[in-house]
Amino acid sequence: MAPPPPVPDRTETLAPEPPRAVLDDPERYEQVAEHARGGLGRVVRAVDKRLGRTVAVKELLKKNASNEARFMREAMITARLEHPGIVPVHEAGRSPNGDPYYVMKLVEGKTLKEQIAACDSLRERLALLPHVIAVADAVGYAHSEGVIHRDLKPSNIMVGAFGETIVVDWGLAHDRKRDLPELEDGAHESSSGSGPWSTVSGKVVGTPAYMSPEQARGEIVDERCDVYAIGCVLYELLCGTPPHADVTPQATLDRVLAGPPRPLIAIPRPPRSPRICVATRPASSSRRTPIPRGPCSARSSRSTAAWSRSRSRARSPSRPSASNRSAAWSPSATSRAASAAAPRTR
Fold it and tell me: 135 with 85, same domain?
């Protein structure tokens, strides 16, 4: 029996100025409105007239060889990561004028950064903890595929209208399994619109406020830099502010290199340092707990259950005094709720 015909490689349509590039139907996607705009490109809400669905089309705005290389890397890396916590890519190619684009699922909602900023209390921020656990699931999958994000932060985490959690902006990612060129030296703005905090300068790649020390030093990094960044996201969820912050990116880098951030216990009315937060943020990468493979849904359930029990005690009508009401949300109770999500070493 004859072998099946080979599947055509569509990624060649992204190659710069291919001699025989296959151009897609320019009338297939009817643009409706601009959905988001970042430093490198924009996302346009569009209608796929062939399939009758609403999609997001990402286009490159700042057109030069370096930005185009990053845009193409982001499209190819994101396309091969198939996980509920990572936005699916439907198609990639070039428009008739040669500009690259790619089509993905339209994710509507707010960033985790916006969600944290909208919270007025620790209790409200703790309700966002399942989203951080979902990020660990998605990033753990990416690591199993040899992909390191290198720019995890709350503004790169989308919380959808139905509670879904999506990790976006893989433009700075490193793919260990594919022979993709690394980013060139120079400064790059984040394509998620987070301003000058995302940088590629020399060998330093990432966002200073969420960088691991080895990343800030420009060393070769591995999956543990993402583990550290998730710890920084959790720190911000607990405290409302990033662990390292200053007025300029360089000043923030200096803070990262100077030593650990301010302990949670030293912040006014903080929770005690949860075990998961401590486990992800040691300065030495060898001491960081890796993200375990497999779903974290069980840990998420334990965390949510612990939080719910604490909330029920805080709202119980049988409380005899105000002191008991405050005890129900004491730092130790908060620590137990967050620690329920901590990864178990085997």
Answer: no
